[in-house]
Amino acid sequence: MSPLSDAERFARLRLARTDRIGPVTFSQLLQRFGSAEAAIDALPDLVRRSGRADYVLPPTAAVEAELEAGAKLGARLILLGDSGYPSLLAAVDPPPPLLWTRGDPTLLSRACIAVVGARIASAGGQRIARGLAQQLGEAGHVVVSGLARGIDTAAHQGALPTGTIAVLGGGVDDVYPPDNAGLYDQVVEQGCIVSESPVGARAQARDFPRRNRIISGLSRGVIVVEAELRSGSLITARLAGEQGRDVFAVPGSPLDPRSKGPNELLRQGAILCEGLEDVERAFTMLRTLREPGGSSPFDGAPDQVDEALLERVAALLSPTPTPRDELARALQLPVGAVAAALLELSLSGRASLLPGGLVSL
User: Fold this and answer.
1) Within 13 Å, how many C-alpha atoms sit on residue 161's CB side?
2) pLDDT digits (tens, 9 = 90+) for 152-196
3) Most exposed: 43, 47, 169, 292, by fewest CB within 10 Å?
4) What global pTM score does this model have?
5) φ/ψ bin of 167: left (φ > 0), alpha (ψ from -120 to 50), beta (otherwise)
6) Alpha-carbon distance 117 to 293, whole Å?
7) What stretch of H or E contains 248?
């Protein structure tokens, strides 16, 4: 992998910060045009044709300000395509376009496992999480969690001596909750802080599903210690399953609502976890997670999509997610032509690109 030029790095950050360009659209723009620089050059014309006059790239001054803020903090920016981008996360469909880090970013490329659970955790649950994280760390695993109260805090504390990763919803300088400020400083010194959000951003509710997706994406497996049925920890477990990762659950008393989440995961086929041995036994099973291959859905795409093709593709869309290949088959057209049309329809707000080559209204 050849290193990204400074201009391409700047362009990737700028493209990633463009309003309404999420990870799916970002990845497809790179595939369609070969680089972020070329995508940015093409975007004004695509936007003009889509009729979205309010669709603008962030000014270069805003991108420069984010880079300066990161440098002042001593943070490191890792972009998709950089050699330091963690391979397990690159295998996610689609991977986050970038990561800001504080601390030791080499931990991201080591064997990682997530330990997550309830914010209002029992003393017993915290003891289990702390002890399990310590065992995992001593066995060579890097423990990943979200720096939240309860189980997350206990997991980080148990793994601090061997290195731990805290993934935040806000920027890498957003210490939340505030009472974990001391733990945050320890993780910077002995582990790594990670965030997809801009430096200086404060976490909002919409940021936590993205945070959870990175926690599971960095990890070979996710262990849920305590969690109620409707919780962020179960979202992380669901994402882990979708990403092809192992899901572990620590069983608990049926009298405690915090045990309902792990117990339900066990009913759904999660791996029972009572200690390190259960994790290492599961990891002896052969499973390979690797970055998607180099083939592009835009192979054979026309240089410019005509209005008639856009309308034909748009007429087949519905609120139900549909595979891109199925649309191509229905239209009796090359996949590349349909993929290019879908990308333009997404920029105009007439389609939503989803992971796995799916699309909906």
Assistant:
1) 10
2) 999 999 999 999 999 999 999 999 899 999 999 999 999 999 999
3) 292
4) 0.87
5) beta
6) 34
7) strand 246-249
